[in-house]
Design brief:
- The structure is a single chain.
- This protein is α/β, with parallel strands linked by helices.
- It contains twelve helices and 19 strands.
- The chain folds into three domains: 70 residues, Winged helix-like DNA-binding domain superfamily/Winged helix DNA-binding domain (Arc Repressor Mutant, subunit A, Orthogonal Bundle); 68 residues, Orthogonal Bundle (Arc Repressor Mutant, subunit A); 306 residues, Purple Acid Phosphatase, chain A, domain 2.
- Strands 12-11-10-7-18-19 form a six-stranded mixed β-sheet, covered by helices on one side. It has a five-stranded mixed β-sheet with strand order 13-14-15-17-16, with no helix packed on it. The protein has a two-stranded antiparallel ribbon with strand order 1-2.
- It is globular and about 75 Å long.
């Protein structure tokens, strides 16, 4: 049978989970509906069959037949790669000539790794990983199969990183995912959800603080090699954002009914998300998670003391995606962080009778989360932002946001992801793009085009009345003193 593309596998996974319309699948994957139709056509040609049902005006599709030579849509592949047709070149290999992905593979193979571990680490099909192994042999690296030990190894005295072997880290991260996620789900069912009612008065306002793209785990250096952003700095940065959010509320000088803390995703960086990321990491996934808990709870407590009601709206980012064995398909590192904090708040409410004015709204692993403003009179639309551009400069981009408005009927929308800030100019409700505290680097400049500046943008605060925005306050580092 023809080998499926990664995107076709994504579509197949959505259809395997039950009836779904092409529109819902398109929104979940961040592509157009016609693209989903094209992928379904290709899947039919590969031997998959679908059955449609009409639910009102919508047509939903269900997978009803899988080709006999496919298992859950994934071709059967050998436990070990076949490298017999690729001899090791008779030359001395050098680490300087390795690509970023080859560096990851070599570091994994130094103490041995299975083929599934390599595919998980690179997020690639086994055939692609096998080709990486062949390329290494062609370059002189002595990659070998040790069937007795059950892994692929490499003969090398050139360690690429002195820290714990990343194959070991992969296994630990997977166990952490499974245990943490399962524990959170069990724990939450036994707790009362933080769900304080929202209120509004005729002359009052809501106060909003939007922070996104904290990227715990990343380390950024300047041109001289000095570390300018690291995991250790993030707690003080969050505390600074909290203090500035409260100070600006006082400066705005309104009577507030409710405060909204909008957490926009990519709070954690995860591991191996983009090429070369291992060189930038300074904390593994569990450490990233732990570094954020205390400062975010301090933020909740500070806002709960200042405002009558605090709504926390949580949206996942794209860096937290994970598919560890045994976890929910909704598993996302941001989602686990949010659920952890929500459970802590629920425990405090139950046993210490504090934080009873908090309300949590946590989005699942999808591109957006709608939420109430002004006691439900207005609607906010929170996105991480990877499926939208931070401009509406072309007719296609304008139509994209127009469709979003028609689908969600929002009064204010917010997004991050691109590490830039401002308000999108278009003939529609306000769309605010908030920055990242992470300074510009090669990856940041690639996705956002932002340039370094003396005052780093870190968050956005604003007021909302029944009539809409009353003032927008960008928060930057001009008053930040560090630790």
């Amino acid at each position: 049978m023809p080998e499926l593309t990664d995107r076709q596998r994504d579509v197949l996974a959505e259809l395997t989970n039950g009836p779904a319309s092409t529109g819902v699948i398109a929104d979940e994957l961040g592509v157009t509906q016609s693209t989903i139709v094209d992928h379904m056509t290709a899947l039919r040609e590969a031997g998959y069959a679908f059955e449609k049902e009409r639910d009102g005006n919508a047509v939903e599709w269900t997978l009803v037949e899988t080709p006999p030579d496919a298992v859950d849509g994934t071709p059967d592949e050998s436990e070990f790669p076949d490298l017999s047709d690729t001899p090791v070149a008779d030359e001395e290999p050098t680490t300087d000539e390795l690509t970023n992905r080859e560096r990851v593979v070599v570091s994994e193979l130094e103490t041995g790794a299975t083929l599934p571990e390599l595919t998980d680490r690179l997020d690639e099909r086994q055939s692609i990983v096998t080709e990486h192994l062949r390329d290494l042999r062609r370059s002189g690296w002595k990659v070998y199969i040790d069937e007795s030990a059950g892994h692929v190894g490499i003969e090398s005295d050139r360690p690429l990183r002195s820290s714990e072997h990343k194959g070991t880290r992969t296994r630990k991260a997977n166990r952490w995912w499974e245990q943490t996620h399962n524990s959170l789900v069990r724990g939450f069912h036994a707790l009362e959800a933080p769900n304080a009612p929202l209120t509004s008065t005729d002359d009052g306002e809501d106060w909003v603080l939007h922070l996104t793209d904290l990227h715990a785990g990343d380390r950024v250096r300047d041109d001289e090699g000095n570390v300018v952003y690291s995991t250790d700095q993030i707690p003080s940065i969050i505390d600074y954002i909290t203090q500035q959010g409260l100070s600006l509320a006082e400066k705005h000088g309104s009577d507030y009914d409710t405060a909204h803390l909008l957490w926009g995703g990519d709070f954690v960086t995860n591991e191996g998300i983009y090429e070369g990321q291992f060189e930038d990491l300074d904390a593994w996934l569990d450490e990233q998670h732990e570094s954020l808990i205390d400062p975010l709870i301090r933020q909740l407590k500070a806002f709960a003391e200042r405002f009558g009601t605090v709504q926390v709206v949580c949206q996942v980012g794209n860096h937290g995606q994970h598919r560890a064995s045994g976890t929910s398909r909704q598993a996302n590192a941001d989602l686990i962080l949010y659920k952890s904090i929500r459970n802590v708040v629920s425990q405090l409410r139950e046993h210490a009778d504090v934080l009873d004015n908090l309300r949590f709204v946590i989005g699942e692993a999808q591109p957006y989360r709608n939420f109430e403003l002004r006691g439900g009179d207005l609607t906010g639309h929170l996105r991480h932002g990877q499926h939208r551009r931070p401009q509406a400069e072309t007719s296609a981009r304008d139509k994209e946001w127009t469709k979003t408005l028609l689908d969600h009927d929002f009064d204010i929308a917010l997004m991050g992801h691109y590490h830039i800030s401002g308000r999108i100019p278009w003939d529609g409700p306000p769309i605010i793009v908030s920055p990242s505290p992470k300074p510009a680097g090669e990856f940041v400049e690639t996705i956002g085009g932002r340039l370094p500046s003396n005052n780093q943008g870190v968050a956005t605060a604003f007021g909302v009345s029944d009539a809409g925005l009353t003032g927008v306050f960008p928060i930057d580092t001009r008053r930040y003193g560090g630790e």
